[in-house]
């Protein structure tokens, strides 16, 4: 059986912009169906998954993932005619009556027919005929449940919104999901955090991670009462309540102006972001982050206690918040925890495929997120031979090659690495990464200003060899540590050698690297340890501001040539820089 999974709503963002030609760029992502992706399962085995943004360069696009589909089919060695089922991670059709006042929007944007039409227009009528919609939160849940490897447990989904829900609690036994609880869109934790993000002058549904990075610089006490008046946890029903005033969630396409006005009346008038840390904005971010974390801890803790379950699987964009995930991981009732690395809507392509595949084989754990495109040495060489402006040499994927990369890191150089298959999800996990020494000279400033061109307050994450993790960090060692989905406290004695990755609250968003999951990266870290005494590096994504994670050699080489990296290590080739 061959199952193709899809996410995204092809007409959603285009229709938003057609209806609002003067839309503020900060509001350009206030719509459903972004982060389109494709995944393919062949005879019960997950073969490939990738987001469309990696192919077309349009970060977070919700367009039909036609290039991702074509690549998945090619990677699996099958044709569109071979596909048995196309699973789509939305099922608005069963909720059509909820849109009785806006039938045009339903027909043009939300209906499954829009996906069928897009597939047909792309030349795949056979895929259109095989389309099966899957409820959005069910797709999210299964994207975490299946790869967790847990026999049973509790699955929690939280995002901006599914079809009509914003939070859903499932108990699972194998792949069978029992829905225990759901919350309406008016009680959406994702929308709350995104409105706060927009209030601070960042892009809705895109820049929430910036707010998470800003929060440790602030004092949560200052605006705590604002969020306590707005939100609460109902311990009788096990649900989050958000007391938005009437009309606060209207006029979404203009950035929820009534909700933002309410926040401004109770707090301050925010300044336009300039990359600096302002006290009001930092305190607001800290209060909102505390609110989100407290509500999630109450929600998850309640349902763990009520069900008696100890295994926890999380998915949905809310669970890309690694600070909240740390607090959930610390709950005493949690014995095992898995968070889907692609917790955003891209992951529903995977979950939707899991929902309809009838012959799933047992999934090896830990889950392997390296599901994207890979390139041969010949393909890389062809790209480099077309660049006479660069110096390069071919070493091969050898110990000598990794030793050279480790030498550069130990010498406080900033390098990029491009190896093997691209990561699925928003985090760079060592195959499309920029790496540096964690105690390098002004390392955060150097990377932020000359390489990434991003806000100075944003932290960098460490990748640490599993053998060094517990010596450097305090963590329960759950699987989210493999995927940069959970923060850990830096041990006090380790701070001097980790100064470039210690955030303001003494935490770090770690990636634990194991030889089993990524042998090349683990070997590189072992070589770094031989030279520096610490098997840990700064690891940030190989891209620049506004650019998706780099997928292919041509983009990698072009990006390297225009930013201040010292060297690029790409599939056994060492690219030195501008030829003289």
Automatic annotation (TrEMBL):
Occurrences of domain Carbamoyltransferase C-terminal (ranges): 406-576
A family per Pfam: Carbam_trans_C
InterPro entries: ATPase_NBD, Carbam_trans_C, Carbam_trans_C_sf, Carbtransf_dom, NodU/CmcH_Carbamoyltrnsfr
Domain Carbamoyltransferase as annotated: residue spans: 35-353
Family affiliation: Belongs to the NodU/CmcH family.
Protein's name in the database: Carbamoyltransferase C-terminal domain-containing protein
Species of provenance: Actinomycetospora termitidis
Source organism phylogeny: Bacteria, Bacillati, Actinomycetota, Actinomycetes, Pseudonocardiales
């Amino acid at each position: 059986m061959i199952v193709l999974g899809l996410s995204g709503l092809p007409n959603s963002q285009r229709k938003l912009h057609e209806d609002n030609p003067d839309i503020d760029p900060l509001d350009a992502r206030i719509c459903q169906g972004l982060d389109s992706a494709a995944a393919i399962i062949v005879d019960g085995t997950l073969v490939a998954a990738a987001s469309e943004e990696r192919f077309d360069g349009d970060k977070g696009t919700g367009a039909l993932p036609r290039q991702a589909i074509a690549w998945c089919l090619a990677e699996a060695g099958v044709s569109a005619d071979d596909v048995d089922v196309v699973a789509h991670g939305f099922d608005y059709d069963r909720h059509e009556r909820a849109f009785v006042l806006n039938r045009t929007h339903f027909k043009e944007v939300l209906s499954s027919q829009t996906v069928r039409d897009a597939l047909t227009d792309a030349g795949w009528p056979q895929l259109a005929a095989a389309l099966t919609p899957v409820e959005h939160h069910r797709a999210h849940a299964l994207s975490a449940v299946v790869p967790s490897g847990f026999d049973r447990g509790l699955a929690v989904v939280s995002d901006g919104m599914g079809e009509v829900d914003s939070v859903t609690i499932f108990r699972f036994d194998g792949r069978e999901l029992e829905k225990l609880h759901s919350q309406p869109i008016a009680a959406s934790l994702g929308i709350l955090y995104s409105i706060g993000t927009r209030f601070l002058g960042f892009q809705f549904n895109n820049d929430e991670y910036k707010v998470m990075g800003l929060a440790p610089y602030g004092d949560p006490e200052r605006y705590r009462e604002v969020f306590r008046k707005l939100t609460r946890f109902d311990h009788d029903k096990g649900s989050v309540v958000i007391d938005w005033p009437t009309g606060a969630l209207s006029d979404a396409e203009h950035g929820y102006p009534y909700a933002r006005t309410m926040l401004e009346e109770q707090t301050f008038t925010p300044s336009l972001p300039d990359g600096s840390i302002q006290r009001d904005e930092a305190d607001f971010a800290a209060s909102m982050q505390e609110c989100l974390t407290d509500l999630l801890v109450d929600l998850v803790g309640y349902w763990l206690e009520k069900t008696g379950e100890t295994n926890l699987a999380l998915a949905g964009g809310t669970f890309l918040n690694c600070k909240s995930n740390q607090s959930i991981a610390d709950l005493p009732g949690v014995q095992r925890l898995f968070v889907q690395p692609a917790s955003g809507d891209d992951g529903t392509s995977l979950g939707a495929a899991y929902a309809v595949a009838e012959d799933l084989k047992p999934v090896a754990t830990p889950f392997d997120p390296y599901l994207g495109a890979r390139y041969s040495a010949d393909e890389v060489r062809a790209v480099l031979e077309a660049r006479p402006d660069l110096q390069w040499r071919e070493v091969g994927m050898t110990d000598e090659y990794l030793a050279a990369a480790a030498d550069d890191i130990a010498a406080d150089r900033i390098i990029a690495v491009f190896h093997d298959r691209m990561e699925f999800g928003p985090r760079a996990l060592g195959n499309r990464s920029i790496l540096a020494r964690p105690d390098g000279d002004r390392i955060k400033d150097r990377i932020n200003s000359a390489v990434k061109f991003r806000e100075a307050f944003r932290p960098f994450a460490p990748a640490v060899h599993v053998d060094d993790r517990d010596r450097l960090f305090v963590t329960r060692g759950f699987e989210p540590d493999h995927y940069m989905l959970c923060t850990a406290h830096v041990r006090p004695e380790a701070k001097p050698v980790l100064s470039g990755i210690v955030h303001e609250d003494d935490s770090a968003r770690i990636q634990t690297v194991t030889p089993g999951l990524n042998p090349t990266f683990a070997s590189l870290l072992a070589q770094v340890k031989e030279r520096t005494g610490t098997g840990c590096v700064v690891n940030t994504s190989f891209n620049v501001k506004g650019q998706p994670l780099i997928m292919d050699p041509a983009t990698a080489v072009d990006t390297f040539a225009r930013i201040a990296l010292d060297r690029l290590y790409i599939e056994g080739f060492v690219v030195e820089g501008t030829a003289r």
